[in-house]
Design goal:
Length: 285
């Protein structure tokens, strides 16, 4: 009788799946009593897969896969599982092997400006091209004067024949709405009060709302991976912005769901990055 333990990996990132397998080999006269006893208290057990028994050299092989996950960063020791057998009217307990599992974070919390520097273009003055530009400028000026006179006449006519006054509807841009929300969030002082999780929840919602209003992509109800997938599918803006947005949302998710406690400086960096996302301008036409 033998109990073997194996895993598909020795380390994983938060949110990934660990496959923990127990393989029990025994003769036909031995009978397994109940299920293997193993402590998964540090993990979340998402699924149990009991495979069909097989036979090899007259011995039965029974394998069970346990699918585990966690959102806590640490190194864990899964104690050796214990399996009870009934053999010749005796009850025997056989242990497997313990497993050390390391859970890490693959999130890069550092923000870097990945936009390329603008090249400095040097060269001799092209007088012919400069003259062409001058002619175009004069033509443009003449056109502006012409249309200016027409507009003035139209203005004079409307002044003498005023139309009924209509109060225009004030339409605020997504940028104005987002920047005002960021200012109000800063005034709350959540970081100074140690409310790091609430700060990241609110600043994430502000940027998701901005993205939804600006690009008409569902963001408030989407996961980070779903939102980034929509951006890359629709190609509404260059990849630089998408990369910065992904890093920003992953840092927020790390604090919201993985119990990561950032420093005040990291929170300020997140706040500044939110401003940069709202004020972002494409580097190419």
């Amino acid at each position: 009788m033998k109990v073997d333990v194996s895993t598909n990996r020795d380390s994983l990132s938060i949110g990934e799946t660990l496959v923990y397998s127990i393989t029990i080999t025994h003769g036909p006269k031995a009978k397994i009593l109940g299920e293997p006893r193993v402590d998964f208290s540090e993990f979340e057990l998402t699924q149990i897969k009991k495979l069909e028994p097989t036979e090899q050299n007259g011995r039965l092989i029974e394998k069970t896969d346990y699918l585990l996950t966690t959102f806590n960063i640490d190194t864990y020791m899964i104690a050796a599982p214990k399996v009870q057998f009934l053999f010749n009217k005796d009850t025997l307990t056989i242990e497997g092997q313990s497993k050390r599992i390391r859970v890490t974070s693959s999130i890069d919390t550092s923000f870097k400006d990945i936009r390329p520097e603008k090249p400095i273009i040097e060269g001799e003055i092209n007088w012919r091209l400069l003259a062409l530009y001058l002619v175009l400028a004069l033509a443009l000026t003449g056109g502006l004067v012409y249309f200016g006179i027409k507009l003035y006449k139209k203005y004079r006519y409307r002044k003498l024949h005023p139309a009924p006054r209509v109060i225009p509807e004030i339409i605020r841009s997504p940028e104005e709405i987002a920047l005002e929300a960021l200012d109000k969030l800063k005034e709350k002082g959540l970081v100074e009060q140690g409310e790091f999780k609430q700060f990241h929840v609110e600043i994430s919602d502000i940027i998701r709302g901005y993205v939804e209003n600006k690009f008409h992509i569902p963001a408030l109800e989407s996961t980070t991976s779903e939102l980034i997938g929509e951006f890359r599918k629709k190609r509404v803006i260059e990849e630089n912005f998408v990369t910065l947005l992904r890093r920003f949302l992953e840092v927020c998710d790390l604090v919201k769901f993985a119990k990561y406690k950032p420093s005040n400086e990291e929170c300020l960096e997140v706040f500044n990055e939110a401003h940069n996302l709202v004020k972002y301008r494409p580097t190419k036409s």
